[in-house]
Design brief:
Elements (H helix, E strand, L loop, with lengths): L2 E2 L22 H6 L4 H30 L9 H36 L7 H9 L1 H10 L18 H4 L2 H30 L12 H32 L13 H18 L2 H15 L6 H14 L15 H29 L8 H24 L1 H7 L3 H31 L5 H27 L14 H31 L33 E2 L1
Antiparallel strand pairs: 1-2
InterPro entries: Cyt_c_oxase-like_su1_dom (IPR023616), Cyt_c_oxase-like_su1_sf (IPR036927), Cyt_C_Oxase_1 (IPR000883), Cyt_c_Oxase_su1_BS (IPR023615), Cyt_c_oxase_su1_dom (IPR033944), Cyt_c_oxidase_su1_bac (IPR014241)
Catalytic activity: 4 Fe(II)-[cytochrome c] + O2 + 8 H(+)(in) = 4 Fe(III)-[cytochrome c] + 2 H2O + 4 H(+)(out)
Family: Belongs to the heme-copper respiratory oxidase family.
Length: 535
């Protein structure tokens, strides 16, 4: 892809541009009133880092309790609050905002736009998140403590919780509104602000995966809002949506929740697929193999995700015909997902490979995500799922997808684009140290959980029989070392990279392609005020 006529660094405003009311603002006003997509992307990324560390502390408190059998540190009620809030903080506070931060930073640069389409709405969508985070974390300090009904908030337990449950409901509403506004912004930017000559089938894969993810967000976030609002009215306004004594049905909540919940899983992984689809061609020095099939596979995954929700509910007594439908529909997802994995490997085949930190995390992602995908395929088989339902096998599966999957993709993208964000190259030795520690300890943490689950260890239990001790101890040690690896990443990679380092050229990676590499590093406050021409 070649470009001509790109303009960077100017403080003049392009017609219709939204670079901000003032050129290059400084101080706290720059961040509070930010309308520049780069500043808002930075805010999202730092917010997600803070929430990632918060959720990580909760995870380590869980593993601390489970290191030995018996109740060591926490009562089961508090333990269940840790489990619940760990899930909510990591999903809505860490993974989703991190991908939105990447979208804010990179989509305008990749499509040749001067900014996101709706700059003030972009600001508002971010500033809804800190109050939501305060509601979530603050719920630990109200009477009765935080929500302890699981991140899924199943009734009747969620109807019986204290005021911490109401705080969770309002936090989920705020985060949902933020997600919907962000999705509208992303769709409008990609469809309407592309540079001249950039057809849809010339879009970078990261933009394609985010375009499809944004449609998923608009479709399913109102469903979650509906479910938690019904819980709220059951709790305070005398309705009985989920109360069997009033002709309600708690299983109906599960159907509504998982109609949101399963597309949500793909909301948290599809942008990661896009990042990996950018990184692997760059370090293979080859175009992405099967670009069109990757686009169609992404769309197929998104469409199929709407008809598989009840595979989370095989033990609720659904008829055999329902089990068969959801079993086969779930297996169907493996086909477009397999297309993606095949295309990534085919891209590397006979390429001129080099293994800098972004590529290490991308290759690591393929391996660990594929493990998570295969265990998901096993769980799709209804008779097997009935046996391992709500055991540590399920915990192992979704953590391989979300920790080893989404998180590794985010790290790959961070190492790939950070030179463009900060203007400094990352110390490669530190990046490799972070990668190898993360790869080893993530497997030490989560792989033994498969065996725990197959042996019958239920999840969300603060205590367990003595025969599970060794695997739990092994897992807890891995979790603490994985956590320390991320502390190392923050203090020895991220913060030093923001403060300084070797200057980054406009195109620090030899095989990288795309408009983002035509602007200086760091990317100036205003870019592409004269739209580049894509040939």
């Amino acid at each position: 892809m070649t470009t001509a006529g790109s303009s960077t660094g100017s403080t003049d405003h392009a017609p219709g541009g939204h670079a901000g009311e003032h050129a290059d603002p400084h101080g706290w006003r720059r961040w509070l009133f930010a309308t520049n997509h780069k500043d808002i992307g930075t805010l999202y990324l730092w917010f997600s880092v803070v929430m990632f560390m918060t959720g990580g502390v909760l995870a380590l408190l869980i593993r601390l309790e489970l290191f030995q059998p018996g109740l060591q540190f926490f009562q089961p009620e508090l333990y269940n609050q840790f489990v619940t809030m760990h899930g909510l903080v990591m999903i809505f506070g860490a993974v989703m905002p991190a991908f939105v931060g990447f979208a804010n930073w990179m989509i305008p640069l990749q499509v040749g736009a001067s900014d996101m389409a709706f700059a003030r709405m972009n600001n508002f969508s971010f500033w809804l998140l800190p109050p939501a985070a305060i509601l979530l974390v603050g719920s630990f300090f109200v009477a009765g403590g935080a929500n302890a009904a699981g991140w899924t908030m199943y009734p009747p337990l969620s109807v019986q919780m204290g005021p911490g449950m109401d705080m969770t409901i309002f936090a989920v509403h705020l985060m949902g509104v933020s997600s919907i506004m962000g999705a509208i912004n992303i769709i409008t930017t990609i469809l309407n602000l592309r540079a001249p000559g950039m057809s849809l089938m010339k879009l970078p894969m990261f933009c394609w995966t985010w375009l499809i993810t944004a449609y998923l967000l608009i479709a399913v976030m109102p469903v979650l809002a509906t479910a938690v609002t019904m819980i709220l009215t059951d709790r305070h306004f005398g309705t009985t949506f989920f109360n069997a004594a009033g002709a309600g049905d708690p299983v109906m909540y599960q159907h509504i929740f998982w109609f949101f919940g399963h597309p949500e899983v793909y909301i948290m992984i599809l942008p990661g697929f896009g990042i990996i689809s950018q990184v692997i061609p760059a370090f293979s020095r080859k175009p992405l193999f099967g670009y069109a099939s990757m686009v169609y596979a992404t769309a197929a995954i998104a469409i199929i995700s709407f008809v598989v929700w009840a595979h989370h509910m095989f033990t609720t007594g659904m008829p055999v015909t329902g089990q068969l439908f959801f079993m086969y529909a779930t297996m169907l997802v493996a086909i477009p997902t397999g297309v993606k994995v095949f295309n990534w490997i085919a891209t590397m085949w006979k390429g001129s490979l080099s293994f800098e930190s972004p590529m290490l995390f991308a290759v690591g992602f393929i391996w660990v995500f594929t493990i998570g995908g295969f265990t998901g395929l096993i769980l799709s088989v209804a008779p097997i799922d009935v046996q391992v339902q709500d055991t540590y096998y399920v915990v192992a599966h979704f953590h391989y997808v979300l920790v080893a999957g989404s998180l590794f993709a985010l790290f790959s993208g961070y190492y790939y684009w950070a030179p463009k964000w900060t203007g400094h190259m990352i110390d490669e030795r530190r990046g490799r140290f972070h990668f190898w520690n993360s790869l080893v300890w993530v497997n030490v943490t989560f792989f033994p959980m498969h065996f725990l689950g197959l042996a019958g260890m239920p999840r969300r239990y603060a205590d367990y029989p003595v025969q599970f001790t060794d695997f739990h101890a092994f897992t807890s040690v891995g979790a603490f070392l994985f956590g320390l690896s991320q502390v190392y990443w923050l203090f020895r990679v991220v913060i030093p990279n923001v403060r300084g380092g070797a200057p980054a050229p406009p195109k620090p990676w030899e095989g990288a392609e795309g408009l983002e590499w035509t602007v200086p590093s760091p990317a100036p406050f205003h870019t592409f005020e004269t739209p580049p021409l894509v040939k």
